[in-house]
Amino acid sequence: MRLIKRILRFVPTLLLSAFLALIVWASAITAADPNEERLYPSNLPVDVIGLDPGLIMVSQSAVNASITLSAPTSVWAQLTRDPGLISMTADLSGLGVGKHTVPIEVDVNTNPVRVISVSPRNLAVELDTFLERELPVTFEVTGLPAVGFESEAPTLSTESISIQGASQLVEQVVVVRASLDITDASQSFVTTLPLSAYDEAGREVTGLTLSPSDITVTQPITQKYGYRNLVVKVVVKGTVAGGYRVTNVSSYPAVVTVFSVNPDLVLDLPGYVETEPLDITGAVDDVDVLLPLALPSGVSVVGENQVQVQVGIAAIESSLTLSNMRVELVGVDEGLVATVSPEVVDVILSGPLPVLDKLRATDVRVFIDMTDVPEGVYQRVPQVEILVQGLLVQSVLPESVEVELEINPTHTITPDDLFPTLTATPRRTATLTPTRTPTKKP
Distance between CA atoms of 147 and 224, rounded to whole angstroms? Predict the structure, then answer.
């Protein structure tokens, strides 16, 4: 009994000692990892939950919010590294059409943390009924194609679209429209255009989802009967002064559109039209002049009957004009018949005299690759292949030629068509008519 009394006398002392030890331990922990109250370094998104599937949110006062927390330094480091530990939500459960104010709830997935404040504290939202409508696409074509061309009815990838959104916005829409400008178009094309919704006053209605949001348009552009595009061939005569060479001959435009009330006159023309002759005898500098076009009676040019011709002339080492070089077509399908107009071109080369002296007709080849090209009429730029190094192609006259591919009515399918064999095609030769001038050092 005395022993128990003696022990009980020490209980208050023991409890006081434990309490003091706890205080000392807590002080030590706090000193090593003190609490900090501060603003989180970045704004965090506010997630909206509980929205009725039949409603849509027209507006909300904020999408992000800032938060002030109190937490130990070690916890702050963890929160800063992983923003996903903090979530902010606004619960719209049970809310109907109209304007509402909902508190922003904060949940921190770590401890110990205390939320001091949230800004904004509430989220203002406006809800409306979700509505979906299907409307036809109104397509508008503006502008006019190039002279001598006409547009045909376009083809649209879809004739109607679905618009979705708040009923108050969807009900304002009276038309969904796309517009295409074909000003000065001279060939068919395919393009993708955005779609927009408009109200009765012609104002665009935004904030809606359009499905699809754009359409693909195929717009055919064809040339009118009696019109035709022709390549311009500049006719140059004479030779430049000694020690000079022609570097290039060009015209602007390079292709003109001609017209006749008698379409047969236009169809009978070759694929080019010549200019009146330009005499460059004795020229020592570039020539830039307007030249009229030589057209047969009954045929006229759409626009001015003249072109801007530029002839580049410069001091040279030596130059060589290869006249009447036949244009070779390669890769033409055996089921097609090819016609080139003009059939021959002039090639102007430049380079050292010793190299030009050794040049043979078989060393130069003019060709156009028509591999996998279907029937039709094309303007193509001839390619020049030179088998001798050190020479440059300065110009090809004309710059482009017309190639017409037609179906061969006499062609029949043979085993060779199904299992073709390679055969060597002899290269055509041309007559060289050189015009060389020895080098004159300035």
Answer: 9
| Domain match, 197 and 263 both | no
DSSP 132-166: EEEEEEEEEEES--STTEEE---EES-SEEEEEEE
Say yes or no: 215 and 303 in one domain: no
Please give the Cα distance from 205 to 198 (Å, whole number). Answer: 5
**pLDDT at residue 22, rounded to an integer:** 61
- Cβ pair 375, 312 in contact under 8 A: no
Same domain, 155 and 260: no
> In one letter, which amino acid is 418?
L
Is the separation of the CB atoms in 208 and 169 below 8 Å?
Answer: yes
Domain range enclosing 101: 35-120
pLDDT at 386: 92
419 domain-assigned: no
Would you say 63 and 43 are in contact if contact means Cβ atoms under 8 Å apart?
no
Going edge to edge, which strands form the sheet with 255-259? 272-274, 227-233, 255-259, 300-301
CATH number of the domain at 252, please.
2.170.120.40
Alpha carbon distances (Å) from 289 to 244, 249, 252, 286, 341: 19, 12, 11, 10, 26
Name beta bridge partners: 179.
140
CB atoms within 10 A of CB 155: 11
Residue spans of the chain under pLDDT 50: 418-431, 433, 435-442
Give the total residue count for the chain: 442
Whether residue 4 lies inside any domain: the answer is no
**Structural domain contains residue 397:** yes
Say what the pLDDT of residue 437 is.
Answer: 46
Of the residues 60, 92, 120, the one at which a domain ends: 120
- Which of 272, 299, 315 lies at the terminal end of a domain, its last residue? 315
Number of domains within the chain: 4
Q: Could you give the CA distance from residue 33 to residue 74 in angstroms, rounded to a whole number?
A: 7
Domain annotation covers residue 30: no
Q: Which residues pair with 190 in a beta bridge?
A: 218
Note the pLDDT of residue 86: 93
pLDDT confidence of residue 303? 80
